[in-house]
TrEMBL record:
Keywords: Signal. CDD domains: PBP2_MidA_like. This is Solute-binding protein family 3/N-terminal domain-containing protein. The keyword Membrane does not apply. InterPro entries: Solute-binding_3/MltF_N. The keyword Transcription does not apply. It comes from Arthrobacter livingstonensis. Pfam families: SBP_bac_3. Coiled coil: none annotated. It comes from the Bacteria. Residues 67-297 form the Solute-binding protein family 3/N-terminal domain.
Length: 303
């Protein structure tokens, strides 16, 4: 059920399930450790600040005049999550990008908290102006909503610092012990490498799958696996929580998925959202937000 706590929240397919459900419980507990680094002070961080008085860039057609309303499910660090793990300010790349958008438009920002499966219904029933919440674009979603691209996603490799630097391509995973979450797209990616490794005269990776993402991290930390394959945005948070123990080998895989900012199909806000994020990308705002949450700014894809 959708939850509305005003501007200061108090509380949380056919496509491979890398988006959210596989990492939910790991991140809810891990998020607590990052409060001192990532938390924003007070509820004012969720309101767009005192500048929310409107300007020449303020678009028409907002669900609530003078306010940008975002449907969000704060269960997916480092894109969106609660600062203390279960309540307080919503932080993360998407949350801060939403604040930057509101400031650019000269309006306040409101986070309409909902479950993941309530995001698209919330948009379509007018509960919010947009979904900025780590939602990948797909033909099915683009049939019912517009989407402005914002970030490229896909699998990436994590390993101990001494090994991560030696991983330059997928073939460097051949013959190694690799771990991924069970039934995820990342596990499928590793499993599919057998023929490619064989063609290169190498052994296939030895894949182990665990039901919980936290267990895949422990497998590498405990030496049971050499490499962990995880989605790039999730990997960034894992490194934040395991500094000096895990590093990302970002060059191993190419991105294969795109996250978008969704708005009503054919709505007047769609071009306004795309234009605003182009400006925020051009002036460096999005890059700074990405770096704040340990995301590689090069994965930003705003056009």
């Amino acid at each position: 059920m959708s939850q509305n706590h005003g501007t200061c929240s108090l509380r949380p397919a056919a496509h491979p399930p890398f988006r959210r459900f596989s990492m939910k419980h790991f991140f809810k507990t891990a998020a607590v450790a990052s409060i001192s680094v990532l938390a924003l002070a007070g509820c004012s961080a969720s309101t767009g600040g005192p500048a929310a008085a409107g300007n020449d860039l303020t678009p028409k057609g907002l669900v609530n005049a003078g306010q940008a309303t975002l449907c969000i499910d704060p269960e997916y660090p480092p894109l969106e999550y609660y600062a203390n793990g279960s309540g307080g300010d919503i932080v993360g790349f998407d949350a801060d990008a939403g604040r930057a958008l509101a400031d650019y438009w000269g309006v306040k920002v409101k986070f309409e908290v909902t479950s993941f499966d309530g995001l698209m219904p919330g948009l379509q029933t007018g509960r919010c102006d947009m979904i900025l919440g780590g939602l990948y674009t797909s033909p099915a979603r683009l049939q019912v909503a517009d989407a402005a691209p914002i970030m490229n996603a896909g699998p990436t490799a994590l390993a101990a610092p001494g090994l991560a630097g030696d991983l330059k391509s997928k073939l460097d995973l051949c013959g190694r012990k690799v771990v991924a979450q069970a039934a995820s797209s990342n596990a499928a990616t590793v499993a599919a490498m057998g023929d490619e490794c064989k063609a290169a005269g190498k052994a296939a990776p030895t894949l182990s799958e665990y039901p919980k993402t936290s267990d895949t991290v422990l497998a590498v930390l405990n030496g049971k696996a050499d490499v962990l394959v995880e989605t790039n945005v999730a990997a960034a948070y894992m490194v934040t929580q395991n500094k000096g123990k895990l590093e990302v080998a970002a060059q191993v895989f190419d991105p294969d998925t795109q996250f978008g900012v969704f708005s009503k199909k054919g709505g007047s806000l769609s071009p306004e959202i795309a234009s605003a994020f182009k400006a925020l990308k051009a002036d460096g705002s999005l890059g700074k937000i990405a770096a704040k949450y340990n995301l590689d700014p090069t994965i930003l894809d705003v056009k």
